[in-house]
Amino acid sequence: RKEVEQDPGPFNVPEGATVAFNCTYSNSASQSFFWYRQDCRKEPKLLMSVYSSGNEDGRFTAQLNRASQYISLLIRDSKLSDSATYLCVVNARPGYGNKLVFGAGTILRVKS
Amino acid sequence: EAQVTQNPRYLITVTGKKLTVTCSQNMNHEYMSWYRQDPGLGLRQIYYSMNVEVTDKGDVPEGYKVSRKEKRNFPLILESPSPNQTSLYFCASSFYTPGANVLTFGAGSRLTVL
After folding, report:
1. Which of A44, A106, B74, B98 is the 20 to 30 A CA-CA neighbour of B25?
2. Residue B57 CA neighbour count, 13 Å, CB half
3. Beta-bridge partner residues of A60
4. CA B90 vs CA A44, A82, A111, B56: distances in Å
5. Rounded to whole angstroms, how far apart are CA atoms B67 and B105?
6. Touching check for A44 and chain B: CB below 8 Å?
């Protein structure tokens, strides 16, 4: 089993739609979780951290489910500019210098 | 502007010709790391450094070397590049350990080894 797994997509959605991605992780001791966004051929950039209680930033909501070992990202009212690859990032090996493990990414395409 | 700078951004080389990809950050970050990104595999860590003169192997270190003589610089060295090292490379940095802090990435270096 991969340490961090994501559905690669692509998710093709119309503008204004709500879309959700999940990401599962294998190490139950993982403590830190993030969503990064990567535009085509560019560097990943932090979208948001994921907190135990869940957190929201504008149209974006992130949630953590420790019991089932997954995190989710919900995007409401999708915009064309949301088209990108979304990377799930987990410190899947706590104690090894808190090394982060990246999922392979989920592709989102928002169409007009 | 706070940033991580990588050079070169694009490089085509031939098997066996040594090359160095430079990485420099101006944020006084202790932690620096190199990743490679290949289709379907996500970002995989090559080497990382917790501070000056402290480096350690990541998940895919074979064929690569690094050094951390100064806090701001973390060059990636390919002593004898091979075609399977054709990839998109990213340098990243953060304060302390990345589990608790946000990684800032360079713009990437696309390497092709013929």
Report:
1. A106
2. 6
3. A57, A75
4. 9, 22, 29, 17
5. 18
6. yes
- Which chain A residues have a beta carbon less than 8 Å from that of B99? 31-32, 91, 94, 98-100
pLDDT digits (tens, 9 = 90+) for A73-102: 999 999 999 999 999 999 876 666 667 889
Q: What tokens were used for A61? A: 């909501």
Chain A residue at shortest CA distance from B5: A43
SS3 content of chain B, % helix, strand, coil (to 5): 5, 50, 45
pLDDT in tens, B54-87: 999 999 999 999 999 999 999 999 999 999 999 9
* Cβ–Cβ under 8 Å, residues A101 and A1: no
Residue B84: name the closest of B62, B53, B109 by CA.
Answer: B62
**Rounded CA separation A65/A87 (Å):** 17
Q: Residue A103 and residue B88: Cβ atoms within 8 Å?
A: no
Inter-residue contact A43 to B105 (CB < 8 Å) = yes
Nearest-10 Cα torsion for A65, B95, B4, A3: -30
Q: Which residue has tokens 């706590």?
A: A94
Among candidates B99, B103, B107 on the partner chain, residue whose Cβ is nearest the Cβ of A31: B99
**Contacts of residue A72, Cβ cutoff 8 Å, sequence gap at least 6:** A20, A21, A22, A23, A62, A63, A65
